[in-house]
Amino acid sequence: MPSPIYTDPGKSKDILADYLQDYRHFHLMEVKSKVRYGRNAIFSIALLTILGDLIKAILFEMPDGFYFSAAISLTFVSLGVYCTKEPLEAIIISLLLYIGFWLCAILLVDTTYIYKGIFFRVLLLYFLLRSIRFARELQQMQKDMPSHC
Question: Among 12, 52, 69, 103, whose CB has the most other CB atoms within 10 angstroms?
Fold first, then answer.
């Protein structure tokens, strides 16, 4: 079966239009793959949140925040699923929630949360911020492309 990206030049009389359509389709697939970085970052936030508090609950016998962390994780998992339908909205909401929960942890729980896990926090923020650009581009491309592509 031939690749859906490439068309047979003998079938169409307008080779340039076919090439442009193939290019747009290939670019759409590339942008979708880059938006997946944001979705994966959202799922990573959920995983790291629940694992961190699970380890705290088991090792230090402090289960007080576990249920709250489970609710936060479920929120991020649902946003990750929603990211497949509306990536821009889901990524922006996730970014705002992630920063908001981080600031609440700093202000309400302990000021040492400023630097605890800073490497992972910065990495996840980088992927979320980076994927906003691609989610905007994907939204614009889907609006501009015909429905049959």
Answer: 69
